[in-house]
Automatic annotation (TrEMBL):
Sequence ranges assigned to domain Phospholipid/glycerol acyltransferase in this UniProt record: 306-433
Gene: plsB
Reaction(s) catalysed by this chain's protein: sn-glycerol 3-phosphate + an acyl-CoA = a 1-acyl-sn-glycero-3-phosphate + CoA
Protein name, per record: Glycerol-3-phosphate acyltransferase
HAMAP family attached to this UniProt entry: Glyc3P_acyltrans (MF_00393)
Organism of this sequence: Marinobacter salinisoli
Annotated localization: Cell membrane
GO molecular function: glycerol-3-phosphate O-acyltransferase activity
Family: Belongs to the GPAT/DAPAT family.
Keyword field: Acyltransferase, Cell membrane, Lipid biosynthesis, Lipid metabolism, Membrane, Phospholipid biosynthesis, Phospholipid metabolism, Transferase
Entry membrane topology: Peripheral membrane protein
Superkingdom field: Bacteria
Pathway: Lipid metabolism; Phospholipid metabolism; CDP-diacylglycerol biosynthesis; CDP-diacylglycerol from sn-glycerol 3-phosphate: step 1/3
Free-text comment about domains: The HXXXXD motif is essential for acyltransferase activity and may constitute the binding site for the phosphate moiety of the glycerol-3-phosphate.
Upper lineage: Bacteria, Pseudomonadati, Pseudomonadota, Gammaproteobacteria, Pseudomonadales
């Protein structure tokens, strides 16, 4: 018997060698650590359907990864000399097909072993294999033959698939199941134990397949045609034709044109081509891509439609996220892209890579809005993964922009119409050590007109490919199930009926709540890098320069501050120490070294001084609360703890709205109190015998640390004080919100010039607009029927509290500016 098994093993080894002359694989989860295997228990690997080629690939991967069980037999009577088995036999023989799947004899034997040995356990590792990972596009017979789809391929089809896609084969090992745990409740029924384990494995393989391949794709022309035939679009065509006095046929042709303009045309060939090109590109311009918390996506993608909501810092964002997902065994999403990117040559490539195009505004075009809404509904109801940027455009300052509600509202309304498929939002933080468009952003912030995207601007960008842009971090944040947000706002939403036009009264509340959670979860997944840490500390100095040794000490101490009270589990910190970070920034050309006999000085000079504010703004929210507490001691030697909590609590709602801080108003007092304790532990504050909290003595290292820390947030507080000062100077009922915004922006810009403030966001009009809106939301100000702002004693209290935060020099400077005529 052993002789024949040996011959059989040699034959299989020969076939494996032949197969891998052509086949190339990419595997994930193929390690003891990733699988969490117990080496004291037997291990066996299961594939869904009997296939010699799949068996050979699996055996190759197990042996190559040195996984347990590669040369061990299954723990069953007369088991084969390997630890692999299939769940189901092939659906048919040479001339007929079985009507239903039939479990294999090895599967049955494993169940029998588990029932006969209740004290023994076996670790069952499900393994999924994809030849080319191509989704099924119903376009031609050739496509169907040569794609790995949801159907089990016949022998000829499998041979052709291997020949075409064998060099792009993906193998995914998944967390093991405990045989003992699965069948424990069915010890007296072998049939029911078999059905349970088969059902668990079948469901698992189906979920993995959807996550990797995505849902079946229909031909694009069929999709476009079906959009025009939906009830909502037909009604929009009828109304537009009546309103414009145009024949319905012409309006229908326009609707078809809109659908054709919008729809993606995802092609696996293009995705593979882009993978090769992007691999070369990333290696050329970046020093690596760090991916964190990818397990979040792998879990939710198996049973939900995923909406990826990344921050938007660069045009590279589109490509980077799809590349990372594809490399990690997940289907790239359909991406909402601005119509400005639908340019010759580039547009068709992006469309085949999954981009669908949208106009910047749907205003005054209800027909286009209806077609786009129906397209989005098709995406979500069919379970496609989708990606869009809630900020709308790229952030020019490095901060998270205020979310725009449009796409979120479409997603919520689509889900209300058809909520059979769960929708889960996955926030994504994309952090660059050196953003490619950095210099362009500086020009735009200085008033230079934004350049329109074209082939020529892309060609000019290509000249930068010889430059090094450092490392990139892509962090996945905590997922947000849409049902969770709906339940919090309106728990009876499942009991109502919805159509394409219905907008419930509570919809805006849901969208606002969802937008805030998305933005705060993106910020909670921030990747801190050496550039951001160096920028934060140097920009907190008066002259943007510091002794190198002192700078290194401060960076190490502020990093310790982040570790002492972590903002979130999803935040990642840089490797190394302050010494490494300074050297790294110098190598990147972002800081200047000025040799000096008493010790070298590290400084920010020229345009780098402004550019580095971008990278500081990436992580400013992490230091917002400790910096706020530190700022209270700018002109106070000591304060009672309750006074600290009160003053910080007054400012918190506005900082939360601007920086998307994750703490609820009900919890923030505890958080601030905890930060006071941390600052005491770190030596930045001292608790006196009478219970008051005091700052360190002037001239000490600790006082320097506290003062620099306060400057991480002080310009934001100064901006608030400018708006309050202008409002109080003019008086109640004298200014509209627009006038206050305009005057605040002008005076902030003037102050920036007069007092050498180097942060472009200091005079960002949108930040003033947001602050004024939240003054109104919090009831500090009101507007009358003419739009004029009125206020009472509450505003004076806020203004006086703000004065306590600012030092004498800053108060006088702001007072000087606000007393000038605008």
């Amino acid at each position: 018997m052993r002789f024949f098994q040996g011959i059989h093993s040699l034959i299989l080894a020969f076939f494996r060698k032949i197969l891998f002359l052509w086949v190339r694989t990419d595997a994930s989860g193929n390690s003891v650590e990733a699988l969490g295997l117990d080496l004291e228990k037997p291990v066996c690997y299961v594939l869904p359907t009997s296939s010699l080629s799949s068996r050979l690939v699996l055996e190759h991967e197990v042996i190559r990864a040195d996984l347990p069980g590669a040369t061990e037999s299954l723990p069953v009577k007369n088991g084969p000399a390997h630890s692999f088995f299939f769940l189901y036999d092939r659906p048919g023989g040479l001339f007929r097909r079985r009507p239903t799947p039939t479990v294999t004899s090895e599967f049955e034997a494993l169940i029998q072993y588990g029932l006969a040995h209740p004290d023994q356990d076996v670790q069952i590792v499900p393994v999924s294999l994809f030849w080319g990972r191509s989704p099924d596009k119903e376009k031609s017979l050739v496509k169907l033959l040569l794609s790995d789809t949801w159907n089990v391929a016949g022998r000829l089809q499998k041979f052709l698939i291997i020949m075409v896609h064998g060099r792009s084969t993906y193998v995914q090992f998944n967390q093991p199941l405990s045989l003992k745990q699965v069948i424990d409740e069915y010890r007296h029924s072998e049939e029911r134990a078999q059905r349970k384990l088969a059902r668990i494995l079948r469901t698992h393989f189906g979920r993995v397949r959807q996550a990797v391949l995505g849902p079946d794709l229909s031909h694009r022309r069929t999709l476009v045609g079906s959009l025009v035939r939906t009830t909502a679009v037909k009604e929009a065509i009828r109304e537009t034709a009546a309103k414009e006095g145009v024949a319905p046929e012409k309006v229908r042709a326009k609707a078809w044109k809109y659908a054709d303009e919008i729809a993606a045309n995802m092609s696996i060939v293009t995705i593979r081509f882009l993978e090769v090109i992007l691999s070369w590109l990333w290696n050329r311009i970046y020093n690596g891509i760090a991916v964190n918390n990818i397990k979040v996506v792998k879990e939710v993608a198996q049973e939900s439609a995923v909406v990826y909501v990344p921050c938007h810092r660069s045009h590279i964002d589109y490509l980077l996220l799809s590349y990372v997902l594809y490399k990690n065994g997940l289907m790239p999403p359909h991406i909402a892209a601005g119509i400005n990117l639908n340019m010759p040559v580039v547009g068709p490539i992006l469309r085949r890579g999954g981009a669908f195009f949208m106009r910047r505004s749907f205003k005054d075009n209800p027909l286009y809005a209806t077609v786009f809404n129906e397209y989005m509904h098709v995406m979500f109801s069919r379970g496609y993964s989708v990606e869009y940027f809630v900020e709308g455009g790229r952030s020019r300052t490095g901060r998270m922009l205020q979310p725009r509600p449009g796409m979120l509202a479409m997603t919520v309304r689509s889900f209300l119409r058809n909520h059979r498929k769960p929708i889960v939002f996955v926030p994504v933080y994309i952090g660059y050590e050196k953003v490619m468009e950095g210099r362009t952003y500086l020009g735009e912030l200085r008033g230079k007109k934004k350049q329109k995207e074209s082939i020529f601007t892309l060609a000019r960008t290509a000249r930068k490919l010889s430059n090094s842009f450092g490392r990139v971090a892509l962090n996945f944040g905590d997922a947000i199930p849409l049902t969770e947000v709906l339940d919090d706002v309106h728990d009876s939403w499942r009991e109502e009926a919805y159509d394409s036009e219905y907008r419930p009264a509570w919809l805006n509340t849901v969208v606002d709540r969802l937008a805030q959670r998305v933005a705060s979860n993106i910020n909670a997944a921030v990747a801190v890098n050496p550039i951001g840490m160096t920028a934060t500390v140097l920009l907190g100095t008066e002259r943007l320069a510091m002794d190198e040794k002192q700078l290194i000490r401060l960076m190490d101490q502020y990093a310790d501050l982040l570790k002492a009270y972590p903002y979130a589990d999803t935040v990642t910190l840089p490797e190394g120490s302050g010494k490494d970070w300074v050297a790294y920034c110098e190598n990147m050309g972002l800081v200047e070294r000025q040799p000096q006999k008493l010790g070298d000085i590290i400084a920010l000079e020229g345009s780098n001084a402004i550019l580095m504010t971008y990278y500081r703004n990436n992580i400013q929210h992490l230091f917002a609360l400790p910096a706020l507490v530190a700022s209270l001691f700018e002109n106070k030697d000591a304060l009672r703890r309750d006074k600290i909590l009160f003053l910080a609590g007054v400012a918190y709602p506005y900082l939360q709205a601007e920086l998307f801080l994750q703490y609820d108003a009900d919890d923030v007092e505890k958080v601030i109190s905890r930060w006071v304790d941390v600052l005491i532990d770190q030596g930045l504050l001292t608790e006196l015998d009478d219970g008051r909290i005091a700052r360190p003595a002037e001239g000490t290292e600790e006082m320097l640390r506290l003062r620099v820390l306060s400057r991480f947030i002080i310009q934001t507080l100064e901006r608030y004080h400018i708006a309050l000062g202008i409002l109080r100077k003019n008086g109640s009922g004298k200014l509209t919100a627009v006038e206050l915004e305009e005057q605040s922006t002008l005076l902030a810009e003037r102050m920036s010039i007069l007092f050498g403030l180097n942060a472009p966001e200091f005079f960002d009009k949108s930040l003033f607009r947001n602050f004024i809106a939240h003054l109104k939301k919090n009831g500090v100000i009101t507007t009358d029927e003419n739009g004029l702002i009125s206020y009472g004693d509450g505003l004076d209290e806020v203004a006086e509290d703000a004065r306590l935060v600012l030092g004498l020099e800053k108060r006088q400077a702001i007072q000087q500016v606000t007393m000038m005529d605008a």
